[in-house]
Structures are given as C-alpha cells and as structure tokens.
Amino acid sequence: MTTPVNKVVYAVYGASGFGRGVMPLARAQLKSQLDAEMYDLVFIDDGERADIVNGHQVYDFDQFLALDASEKYVSIAIANSQIREKLINKLQQHQIGSWSIIAPTVIQMDDVQIGEGAVLCHHVHLTSNIRIGQFFHANYFSYVAHDCVIGDYVTFAPSVQCNGNVHIGDHAYIGAGAILRQGTPDRPLIIGEGAIIGMGAVVTRDVAAHTTVVGNPARILTAYPSGS
Per the database record, which ranges form the PglD N-terminal domain (predicted)? Predict the structure, then answer.
C-alpha cells in the first residue's frame, strides 16, 4: 500500500456512479498537466467496494491516510452536499488538500470566479461575471449565464439551465433539466439555502430556503424548517 514519497496522490472520493463518471475527467486532466511518474490517481470509498474499479485502486479513508506520499489531494464526487461537506471537514482535519476537476470541454468566459473543489463535467458553460462558491458540482451540459451568484456545496444535475441574475444559496440542489428563469440586476431570482429544484422544473419565482419545488411552473412540494 505504499507509494514512492516523491509522488503526489490524487483521489476521487466516491466510487459509485458519479465518481466513476468523474474519474476519466480526472485522469485526462492530470495526464495533460503532469508526467505519469509524478503522481498516482486512486478512488476513496468507505462502503462495500472492489479493490480495483475501472483500473484504479480503491482505498477506504484510513487506508488512504496510510499511503506514503509527498502530498495528497482529494476531489469529492458525491452529489449529496451534506455528505460532501462532512467529508471536506474530515479531510481538512487531516490537512489534506482539495482539487478541482474541470473537463476540457468546459467553457468559461469573462470574469468567472469559482471556489476550490469544483467538479465541472463535459460541456458545462459558464458565461460572464459569475461568482461560484466552494465545492460546486455541475453535471453534463449545464450552464450558468451572466451575473449569477452561487453559494457553497451547490449541485447541478445534468442539463440545468441557470439563466442570468440568479442567486443560489448554499447546499441547493438543482435537478436534471431544470430551468431557472432570468432575474434582473435589481431583482435577481433567489433560490434559497438548501432548496431542492425537481427534475425538469421551470422556476419562475423565488424559492424559499429548505423548500422542494416541482413542475412547470414550479410549485411547492415540501418545505422543511431550517436545519432539518
């Protein structure tokens, strides 16, 4: 279980469906940036698992900690944002760094700022004057238009259409194919902290924190007290 100490170990945390989808992006990114002898690329998974998944060694967290390496970096490929935050806190306690995985087909235009630990899958499009927090996930074919502000631990499923002047709170989840209508500079569309936007929903008005909306136009399905 040892790695030569001159190597850096990069890991994708999560070897289930999304993690297996992210791993080829990680592999291509590292191959384009580093010589092969400089790093190892592995999975971390704490559940029942095979030792090898799609050609990459799989370790549980304790085994990963025991690896002998000069540095270690982890990207969390788990859609549940609450679990993502717990794992990040655990990594930080062990002084393990995060890294962003960005597919080569991602388009970023003018003045786009993204926090650490992002996962941006193929054909994600970020236009101009956008602010995105830490540990953002944007799945395939999603876009974020101009003047949007997105918090920490936000998750976009595939093909989300986030139009201009939308503000999204921490831990919000935007389901596959959802459409968020455009706001205005003085009246942005607000998606509250921890809100869930259902698959295919068309959101035409603000969504309160910790509320689930579905349908076209989107309507409230459930609302939970803050912190529940």
Answer: 11-91
Instruction: Examine the domain organization and report whether 82 and 113 are in the same domain.
Output: no
The answer as to whether 3 is a domain residue is no
Distances 58 to 52, 54, 55, 89 between C-alpha atoms, Å: 6, 10, 9, 21
Query: Are residues 64 and 162 located together in one domain of the fold?
Result: no
Q: Residue 80: give its domain's CATH number.
A: 3.40.50.20
Question: Do 118 and 210 share a domain, yes or no?
Answer: yes
Q: CA 127, CA 111: separation in Å to the nearest integer? A: 9
The catalytic residue among 56, 137, 146, 171 is 146
| Token pair recorded at residue 128 | 């101009």
- Sequential pLDDT tens for the chain (228 residues): 554 456 899 999 999 999 999 999 999 999 999 998 899 999 999 987 789 999 999 999 999 999 999 999 999 999 999 999 999 999 999 999 999 999 999 999 999 999 999 999 999 999 999 999 999 999 999 999 999 999 999 999 999 999 999 999 999 999 999 999 999 999 999 999 999 999 999 999 999 999 999 999 999 987 676 655
In the annotation, is 125 catalytic? no
Residues 156 and 9: their CA atoms lie apart, in Å, by: 27
Residue 2 falls inside a structural domain = no
